[in-house]
Design a protein that fits this description.
The chain is globular and about 70 Å long. It is α+β, with helices and mostly antiparallel strands. The chain folds into 2 domains: about 1-180 and about 305-390, Alpha-Beta Complex (DNA primase, PRIM domain), CATH 3.90.920.10; about 185-300, no CATH class. Strand 6 (about 145-150) and strand 7 form a beta hairpin. The protein is built from 18 helices and 9 strands. InterPro entries: DNA_primase_S, DNA_primase_ssu_euk/arc. Keywords: DNA replication, DNA-directed RNA polymerase, Metal-binding, Nucleotidyltransferase, Primosome, Transcription, Transferase. This is DNA primase.
């Protein structure tokens, strides 16, 4: 069976253990208390699995042949012994992020019945979200070790692995998600679902939603606006086949709606058309109507996070290098530097009987392993340096270092 062969010969269990040990000295104590869970055939779900080594993991994978592997929290006791202890509680876990194109269905410009093809054609949404979030996590929160992993189907997962991030309480995790979440004015949210007219809400909504007064959101808008023009406005479907713009135009007073609809019908150059629309909207009340542009850009491109995934320490998330149960594509790590060049159908190997023997020489699979290995080595290098500096400081404090 090809799944057995994948787990036996290709799944990098050694990298998984090394990553989740978080120690340049390869201390197994942390990993032994980490929960792994398996989804088996017929949707049988096996939780609270824990292991001591890569060999142990590989042995169980070959035996159980899970269709999916999830990673959970580190507990105060090994999860496999949780039924034997009185107090069993999570003590640390990466801060995780989940972005899925399913949450963008009403704004995706290109549709496809094939889900991986859909992800290919709308990857700009994922790439933009990754760069926005990666920047915020580094610049605004000071995190340094962030691993991004393609979900195997329609999205991407972020793992913030700094020790400070792993030890965040649920309350702190919730606060970070609140900081990263943009809530559009109520009228805009409802219009995207109901398609009704909310003319009377526009002025009040925009006055209350002073987005660009927040530095992070100002940075986000400055980054997203050129992408909005390139991928949305310059796509002919935005002004023709798509109903999204018309729904938003229904927010405007009727005289503006009529004027803009006339422009859409009479114009052939999309970029010039968009510039003219901006001019019309900003003429009478620039602060209010400019807010409409900001809302439109954020509605199409700002990251839409599954907050429940991030809020709780004990939440489970698919392991890197596991196979997505529906597509059989490998959940490969992706470098932020290469995020715009990544193409799921090309860069995430699909495992089956027919191609498994090529996987060991597959450049994309080997490249994904290198990304993972480089991430681990960078973490271990910095950890080792911090340990040396800490030890030297202790010697200095004691007067033992000359």
């Amino acid at each position: 069976m090809w799944r057995r062969s994948y787990y036996q010969d290709y799944f990098p269990a050694d990298l998984l253990v090394r990553w989740l040990s978080y120690s340049f000295q390869h201390n197994k104590h942390l990993f032994e208390r980490r929960e792994l869970s398996f989804t088996l055939d017929n949707e049988v779900y096996v939780r609270y699995q824990s292991f001591e080594s890569a060999e142990d993991i590989r042995k169980v994978l070959i035996q159980k042949l899970p269709v999916k592997i999830d990673i959970g929290a580190v507990y105060n006791y090994p999860p496999s012994s949780q039924s034997l202890v009185t107090l069993f509680t999570p003590v640390e876990r990466e801060f995780i992020l989940d972005i899925d194109l399913t949450d963008y269905e009403e704004v995706a410009i290109v549709n496809s019945e094939d889900e991986v093809d859909l992800c290919d054609k709308n990857w700009y949404i994922i790439a933009a979200a990754v760069e926005i979030l990666d920047n915020a996590l580094r610049e605004d929160f000071g995190f340094r070790h962030i691993l991004w992993v393609y979900s195997g189907r329609r999205g991407i997962h972020g793992w913030v692995c700094d020790e400070r991030a792993r030890r965040l309480s649920d309350e702190c995790r919730d606060s970070i998600i609140e900081y990263l979440t943009v809530r559009l004015p109520p009228g805009l949210k409802e219009i995207s679902v109901q398609g009704e007219n909310f003319n009377t809400l526009l002025d009040d909504s925009m006055k209350q939603w002073n987005t660009l007064g927040v530095p992070f959101l100002k940075r986000s808008f400055d980054y997203l606006y050129p992408l909005f023009v390139k991928y949305i406005v310059q796509n002919p479907r935005f002004f023709t086949d798509s109903n999204h713009l018309k729904k938003y135009l229904s927010l405007l007073p009727s005289n503006y709606t009529a004027q803009i609809e006339y422009l859409i019908e009479s114009s052939t150059a999309d970029i010039d058309l968009w510039k003219r629309i901006e001019e019309i909207l900003s003429e009478p009340k620039k602060s209010s109507y400019y807010g409409f542009i900001v809302c439109l850009v954020f509605h199409y491109l700002y990251p839409r996070l599954d907050a429940n995934v991030s809020r709780h320490m004990n939440h489970l998330l698919k392991s890197p290098f596991c196979l997505h149960p529906k597509t059989q594509r490998v959940c490969v790590p992706v470098s932020v530097k290469e995020i715009w060049n990544f193409q799921p159908s090309r860069d995430a190997p699909q495992v089956s009987d027919g191609n498994l023997h090529h996987l060991g020489n597959d450049e994309k699979f080997l490249h994904a392993e290198k990304i993972m290995k480089d991430f681990i080595e960078n973490f271990e290098r910095e950890q080792k340096l911090e340990t040396i500096n800490t030890n030297e400081q202790r010697l200095l404090d004691r007067g033992d270092f000359v």
